[in-house]
Amino acid sequence: MTQQKGSSQQVRIIGGKWRGQKLRFSGDASLRPTLGRTRETLFNWLRPVIREARCLDAFAGSGILGFEALSQGAASAVFIDQNPQTTRSLAASAEKLNAQTQCEVIKTDFFAYLRRTTATFDIVFLDPPFSQPQLLNQALTQLNQNPTPAEYIYAESKSLEVLTWAAQSTGWAIYKQTQTGNTTGALLTPDLQHGDTKDKIRVRNNT
Whole-model pTM? Predict the structure, then answer.
């Protein structure tokens, strides 16, 4: 989904406690929220680990991935975006859902945020503009260099080839993948090189 600069669109949460809630968002023309059927597939993958997860929604845009995660049991979500219209919409969505205590909306450059933060995350949603594929490589590189890398990254790209190359060249392995229209999504895990990631998803002990 795309929009014109300054316009407002809406997107619907598909699962969990806020199922059916519609969230309005605004920003620049690059915003294209992850489609509902893709989100359904993604959160089926994440179901064993989403409860109480700490999530980071990078290049957040509409914020639908972070809000969907909270709706389906995540403990917290940090939303990063540079666009002031977008961050105002994200804050308004958090308020609408009465989720301010679970959300942190930060207007900043994602890479600057990664360099200064000491926070750790279980799941990162990574959906930079398709027009700037280098951002995907840069983000995956920097996330892999963090002292405590995320357990899972969900990334989107315009093609499987672009996503596969980005993952393999930055130290991540594709665990699962899905294709919807001209968008490829993949769940990534740290590349263990000699390990088999087929049983990677497991239920965390949150006690």
Answer: 0.88
